[in-house]
Amino acid sequence: MPYTLLIRHCGQLLTLTGPPATRPLAGPDQSGWHIITDGYVACEGSRIAAVGPMAELEESQLTPATRTIEAHGRVVMPGLVECHTHLVFGGQRAAEFERKLRGESYLDILAGGGGILNTVRATRAASEAELLAAALRHLADFRRYGVTTLEAKSGYGLDAATELRLLRVAREAGLQQPVRVVPTFLGAHVPGPEYAGRPTDYLAMLVNEVLPQLDPAEIPFVDIFCEQGAFSVADSREFLTAARNRGFGLKIHAEQLHELGGCEMAAELGAVSLDHADYLSAEAAARIAAATQGRTVAVLLPLVPLFLRLERYAPGRAFIDAGLPVALSTDFNPGSCPSKNLWLALSMGCLKMGLTPAEAVAAVTRNAAWAIGQQQECGSLAPGLRADILVLNVGSLPEIPYWLGDNPVQQVIIGGELVEENM
Ligand SMILES: [Zn+2]
């Protein structure tokens, strides 16, 4: 079959390919992936057909029907994989943001019925159509930033009916536009207001009333927030074990504000990712890397401490040196990070967590794909993978984190189709 799309004269083609094949990139491999100078990417329909230096382009595969995109010596890379978002929610919390800036504490706001309960009320009150319209708007914004695959958690319903509604909306949003959406069930975000002070009873309700209604083929992951004021390590272990027994992949929000041991517990259960990890020590990271043979990814969320004005950031440099694979994400949500700018998260991963530009790019592509089980589909530029490709407006890899807060995306290709062009 001839090429349907050719992207040529890529000054730096960031393929993100290279060993190992059977686990995420860790240690020296996180920056050791391949860059091709003056390269091309060719696609056949929705898949990548060939990647290589311009000198090796098979001209015989080109026809008058082949669409050609000139990269003019700029950087070309895989589409961004956004591996941790709370995409579907009602309302927003700008008024609370302003109150916090004026000096009110999170606990004051929570005591007045604000915080996450504010979003839960707005989410429960929103119709399915309203939630879908908001999710589609956010997805369009993510797409302009070059996100081509996105994980979307439930977790602002906190009752069986609303949680199921949020998962339906996430799936429907994935069908109505080109960004691939991977839904995660996070009913165990905090105990629902009807279960205040009874977290164990709330989790039992989720296990008995919600998990049996979910199909792991449609909702591949179950997540829990393990933290003071949310769920204990013991309760989280029991809940995740129940989810694993039903065939779900596991994720955890842990070590965000305290070192409780949630990350090690979830790694022991075979979780695909450990998210936040701001209080995870380098020693614990090394134990997790050894115990999981480098298969569990630490998903770091540097825009959260920025937005919450906290001092502590996950020691990403130490994690990579300890052999723990690192991914980066925004944690897009209405409370602790309303940003959809994964490029800013990438830069902050360099500035506040000590990643190099090459490690940070791997953290938003190949390792992020591993963190949501999509590594066979996306995250690198190799024959057979989905043709999710970005043409940037920069000329070299270190320029990506350097233009702080910028959107370097010029063209977005998803499944072999040009879906965005920022001129
Ligand atoms: Zn989160």
TrEMBL record:
Cofactor note: Binds 1 zinc or iron ion per subunit.
Cofactor(s) essential for the protein: Zn(2+); Fe(3+)
Subcellular location per the Swiss-Prot or TrEMBL entry: Cytoplasm
GO biological processes: L-histidine catabolic process to glutamate and formamide; L-histidine catabolic process to glutamate and formate
Enzyme class at the top of the EC tree: hydrolase
Residues that hold 4-imidazolone-5-propanoate according to the record: R93, Y156, H189, Q256, S336
Substrates-to-products reaction catalysed: 4-imidazolone-5-propanoate + H2O = N-formimidoyl-L-glutamate
Amidohydrolase domain ranges (all copies): 122-393
Keywords: Cytoplasm, Histidine metabolism, Hydrolase, Iron, Metal-binding, Zinc
Binding sites annotated in the UniProt record for Zn(2+): H84, H86, H253, D331
Residues binding N-formimidoyl-L-glutamate, per UniProt: Y156, N333, G335
The enzyme's E.C. designation: 3.5.2.7
GO cellular component: cytoplasm
GO molecular function: imidazolonepropionase activity; iron ion binding; zinc ion binding
Matches recorded under Pfam families: Amidohydro_3 (PF07969)
Residues annotated to bind Fe(3+): H84, H86, H253, D331
Pathway participation: Amino-acid degradation; L-histidine degradation into L-glutamate; N-formimidoyl-L-glutamate from L-histidine: step 3/3
Role, per record: Catalyzes the hydrolytic cleavage of the carbon-nitrogen bond in imidazolone-5-propanoate to yield N-formimidoyl-L-glutamate. It is the third step in the universal histidine degradation pathway.
HAMAP family documented for this protein: HutI (MF_00372)
Annotated family: Belongs to the metallo-dependent hydrolases superfamily. HutI family.
Protein name: Imidazolonepropionase
